[in-house]
Amino acid sequence: MTVSQDHRPAHRAAQVTESGGPVHVAPVQPREPGPGEVRLDVKASGICGADAGMAANPKPAYGFPIVPGHEVAGVVTQVGAGVAGWEVGERAGVGWFGGSCGHCTACRSGDVVHCANRQIPGLSYAGGWATTVTVPATALIRIPDGLSYEEAAPFGCAGVTTFNALRHGGAEPGDRVAVLGIGGLGHLAVQFAAAMGYETVAIGRGEDKRHTALDLGAHHYIDGQAEDAGEALRAMGGARLILSTASSSKPLAGLIDGLTPHGRLTVVGFDGTPLQLPLDKLVMHARHVTGHVTGSPVDTEQAMRFALASGVRPRVQTAPLEQAAEALKTQQAGQARFRMVLTTGD
């Protein structure tokens, strides 16, 4: 038994129907929520770098067609049996964390993000590049008033990832924190870092990024094309935390010199290239290199509340769902300013 709205508009999804096939929009049937699940009518869905990999997956876990999308904002439309705390008509979303098993060691320890059987929209089940998506109720994120659907969607991945990486990065207010990259992740990280009270250094490529970095709240800008970013940070006195949001791993080794003793390099953006690090510089100065991924629904809700209180907002470039293929190409080419978001118009 499910609770539902009476009307059932025609639904559609941006999908890939065969291995190596293109992204195209086609009609779809909503999937009825089973026990413990909720169906959303999607209003907006962000495009993340990982979505390209999802679209190209030759063996999707749920079979073809593939529907990418893990930054989803919409409205609860159906509530499955056994679901408490959610009602039809509520604003809700789902992010990279798309569900957990509830019984592994990580889940029992409260670390649902690192569940051994973690689900991810677009990888584990059809994602949010659609007008409808059905997800575990435990993955739902409450969207507060004050954020539009287009603003809320990126918090499910880019927002919560940078928010958590910064607040758990070991720096304290007044410490110097550097952000490498000023793109879909980095533009949020710069804003969050400044709002958290860190002396914020943005590291980009090209003098043309300086105005943007300062406008986002950075106190300093380093042009990584014109000077060695690690040495520039060292000349400032070093950074307690460097958050790498760039998709290229190439600059990371050179940033080690820019860390203070006991400083940390946290990586959230990468390209899979093997990384060679100067171990002597890590060991002799007790420095750390770590990775970070996403957050729980509660973390995402906290990131949204912090954003409302501090004025942090994702800067989005919208496109209708029907233009998903073109929007994905824009994102992959690094031409989005700053986060591509698909809208359904429903």
Automatic annotation (TrEMBL):
Reactions this protein catalyses: a primary alcohol + NADP(+) = an aldehyde + NADPH + H(+)
All residue ranges annotated as the Enoyl reductase (ER) domain in the record: 20-342
Keywords: Metal-binding, Oxidoreductase, Zinc
One MF term in the entry's GO annotations: zinc ion binding
Top-rank taxon: Bacteria
Disordered as annotated region, ranges: 1-37
Cofactor: Zn(2+)
GO cellular component, one term: cytoplasm
PANTHER family per UniProt: ALCOHOL DEHYDROGENASE 1-RELATED, ALCOHOL DEHYDROGENASE-LIKE N-TERMINAL DOMAIN-CONTAINING PROTEIN
Family: Belongs to the zinc-containing alcohol dehydrogenase family.
Full protein name: Alcohol dehydrogenase catalytic domain-containing protein
Organism: Streptomyces ferrugineus
Biological classification of the source: Bacteria, Bacillati, Actinomycetota, Actinomycetes, Kitasatosporales
